[in-house]
Design brief:
Length: 353
């Protein structure tokens, strides 16, 4: 089991890793906010995923201090950030989406938290870029069906989300990791390509007994869905369907899968209804086929992960249930603020939580 108290202080420096795919229009806002930070001991690494919009030329001409790793093709989010992480050597890694803007003291606040606490990774408060009183997420919760949920998403910012606390994990769109954690657990799973790769890492971290701390004082403003153009489209549905099943196969022991089977079935049923409603049934089927094609390779990774030292299955189940309760409470707050009913959520909590 990884010992949390063994981490060194963070002031030796920071690697900021930004994946980019045709995001030229966002880079200036993102980078300007980084170079205006109150904390200045960092290296910026942008990994370009074969962009065709002049992103690399722009970076080389306008930001010569930025280290650019130009890939010849789009290898996906996981591969891009892994290349960026490997290119640095600082004890802390800040992973950041290109469609973001940092509050001036964001890094300073995160670094202070990393000095004061022995958590393995940290989640800032993410807010809507356009409506800055609306939350994008304040740390990640988890649903037993095999997906994460950004706590507070689409809720109005409030005192509820203004206190530091431990959460299940961090959204890969803005997260601070200790390099020792990544070296111990391994980097993002490149078989996921994009979507849920951060949830997979969150799960592996919790299995190892590591913790994530939400730092609301560190603020990140996020546009969202900048690469794909929308949250629900054939690409996102296919990969989300496949990767959800990848995560379950890779991280659940048979005993846990059996214990959580009713909740898994409920999630899968409502996900299917949702994609049908959005006219994405064929993309869903494509995701199922992709899962079957890649299942053998993912299963081989499962053996290594489940054999690694970590907390007991009982303790891990406890973490998952607490994380799911956080999600249910967040969704109920959002629905209440929108004047919507909470009956099904209350029933779910009564039966499963």
């Amino acid at each position: 089991m990884v010992q949390q108290g063994a981490y060194p202080g963070p002031r030796a420096g920071l690697d900021i890793v930004i994946p980019n795919y045709n995001g030229r229009q966002f880079l200036e806002t993102c980078l300007q906010s980084i170079f205006l930070q109150t904390f200045a001991s960092f290296q910026v690494i942008v990994v370009d995923n074969g962009s065709a919009d002049g992103s690399v030329d722009f970076l080389q001409e306008s930001y010569p201090s930025v280290k650019v790793i130009a890939l010849s093709e789009n290898l996906g989010f996981s591969a891009a950030v892994n290349r960026g992480i490997a290119a640095g050597d600082s004890p802390l890694v800040f992973l950041l989406n290109n469609d973001t803007e940092l509050a001036p003291d964001c890094l300073e606040r995160l670094l202070q938290a990393a000095e004061q606490h022995d958590d393995a990774f940290f989640a800032p408060k993410m807010l809507s870029f356009r409506e800055r009183e609306i939350l994008d997420g304040v740390g990640d919760g988890y649903l037993r069906g095999g997906v994460g949920y950004r706590l507070g998403t689409m809720e109005r910012d409030s005192e509820v989300y203004s206190k530091e606390r431990r959460v299940f994990g961090a959204c890969g769109g803005a997260a601070l990791y200790r390099r020792l954690m990544l070296e111990r657990l391994g980097l993002f799973d490149e078989d996921f390509f994009a979507y849920l790769e951060d949830v997979d890492l969150n799960f592996r971290a919790n299995r190892a007994g590591l913790t994530c701390r939400c730092v609301p004082a560190a603020r990140v403003y996020h546009i969202g869905s900048a690469t794909t153009g929308s949250k629900i489209n054939p690409f996102t549905v296919r990969l989300s369907t496949r990767n959800n099943l990848y995560l379950l196969l890779k991280n659940y022991r048979a005993s846990m899968a059996f214990r959580f089977l009713p909740a898994i079935i409920v999630y899968q049923f409502f996900w299917l209804l949702f994609v049908i409603k959005k006219g994405q049934f064929f993309s869903y089927c494509s995701g199922l086929i992709a899962f079957l094609r890649g299942a053998r390779q993912v299963f081989r990774k499962r053996r290594t992960i489940l054999a690694a030292p970590g907390i007991s299955e009982r303790e891990l189940r406890g973490r998952i249930l607490r994380a799911e309760n956080d999600v249910v409470q967040s969704i109920m707050r959002r629905r209440e603020s929108q004047g919507k009913g909470k009956g099904l959520l209350r029933l779910y909590a009564k039966i499963f939580l």
